[in-house]
Every structure is written in C-alpha cells, then in structure tokens.
Specification:
about 220 residues; mainly beta; Porin; globular; TorF family putative porin; signal; CHP02001
Length: about 220
C-alpha cells in the first residue's frame, strides 16, 4: 500500500507530497520519472528494483485532479492512483487538501479489500506550508488498517529534510524514518532514507531519480 507520491516524487517516492500552487488558469501537465527503487515512507517497495512512474494533472483556479501510475511494487505489482484536491494560499500559509485513491490492477482476489478496485483504499491528505517548513497529514479513510501518517519537512537551498512517522491503532506497527534529499538540478535528485525504529529494516537506503516534464 502506498500514497502520495508527490511528496517524494523525485524518489518516488512515494511517496511525498509537495504543495501545489494555485494556477491562474486551466492547465494540463504531465511528467515521467525513473528511480533506482520505489521508496515509500521509508520502505523499499520494489525490493531494490528500478521503478518507472508518470502522472497527468489538470488544474484550474486552485482545483486539480489527475492520475499517477507506477510500474509497481514487489508485492502488488502495477499501481494506479487517482487524486483530486484544492490548493490555496492564506497569507504566509499554503494549504493543500486532497483525496487519493490507490488501485492495484494486478493484485490477487485476496487483496480485494485493500486496493485492487476503485474505492477500496483511500486517504485524505492535508498539507500545510510556511516558508521552508511543511507539515503533511495522511488519514486512511478506506482500506488498510486505520492509521495516520505524518511528515515534517524543511527545505534549504537544494537540500530537503523529511521526518515521517505513523500513528497506527496497532502500536506495534508504528515506525518513523528520516530522509535527506539533494536536488542536483530540476531533473536529477538523490535521497538517503533511514529508519529510526529498531523494529524495522535499519539499512540506509539510497535512491537516484530522474524526472522529466512533458510538453503538452
């Protein structure tokens, strides 16, 4: 299971989510990305294999909607995410509220209650930003086990720092991770991700990603 990906779009990350500036007029945008692994909330979902992803987004007046797809993770295969939201600015505070639905078309029948059809697995995501600081809250509203996932981010020049963690009904499932990313340029980025929970994989993960916008 996975989500907003745009937060760690370069790593793809998974994912996280970045603030979307409210556009002045209608716009259709698209991009493709390739990463050395599918990094999602501190986990390597592709078991070290490269991941290819792409997105298509329509935005107008602060509203946006689109689709994001990935070659998939090692367990459930291909992933397709559908999303819609609204982004705006309130003084120095940026606000982004969206709904994401995750679909795994190749998943087995036993996965039916956790995302192989539309509506089975969904999150409501609230992103807040002020200058270089951002806070994102993910609320699992359908499928999964009922949890919250939080990220606290800080950007400085070409570096970004992200602390992520969960608040799960099953306390034994809670974990946290810390990511450091460096944007070499607008297309190439590098991410180091480390679990800071002794009950999870503590190997340092390194991701190289290349992202390319597509002219429409």
């Amino acid at each position: 299971m996975k989500t907003m990906k745009t937060l760690i779009a370069a790593s793809v990350a998974a994912a996280s989510m970045t603030m979307v500036a409210a556009p002045a007029s209608a716009e259709l945008s698209a991009s493709v990305s390739v990463a050395s692994m599918y990094l999602w909330r501190g986990f390597d979902l592709s078991d070290g294999s490269p991941a290819v992803s792409g997105d298509l987004t329509y935005s107008t007046g602060g509203f946006y909607a689109g689709v994001w797809g990935s070659s998939g993770d090692d367990t459930y295969g291909q992933e397709v995410d559908y999303y819609a939201g609204f982004a705006t600015q309130a003084g120095p505070i940026s606000i982004d509220l969206s709904v994401w639905n995750y679909v795994y078309p190749g998943a087995s029948a036993g996965f039916a209650d956790n995302g192989d059809t539309f509506g089975d697995l969904s999150e409501i995501i609230l992103g807040l930003g002020a200058g270089p600081v951002s806070l994102t809250i993910y609320d699992n509203v359908a499928g999964g086990s009922g949890y919250y996932y939080y990220t606290l981010g800080y950007d400085v020049d070409k570096f970004s720092f992200l602390l992520g963690g969960t608040d799960n009904k099953n306390e034994d499932s809670n974990y946290s991770h810390f990511d450091v990313s460096y944007a070499y340029n607008d297309k190439v980025s590098f991410t180091f991700s480390q679990m800071i929970d002794e009950d999870n994989d503590d190997d340092l993960k390194f991701v190289v990603s290349y992202s390319l916008p597509i002219d429409m």
